[in-house]
Amino acid sequence: MKFAFIEAEKATVTVAVDARQSEGLLQTFDDVVAAHMEGTVQRVRPKLMTVSTMLVGLVPLLWASGSGADVMKRIAAPMVGGLLTSAFLTLEIIPVLSVHLTWEALLWARAESSLTSTAADLTRAVADRRPRADEGSQPWLTRQTVRAATSSLPARSSSPSMSSSVPNSSSL
Question: pTM, whole model, 2 decimals?
Answer without folding.
Answer: 0.55
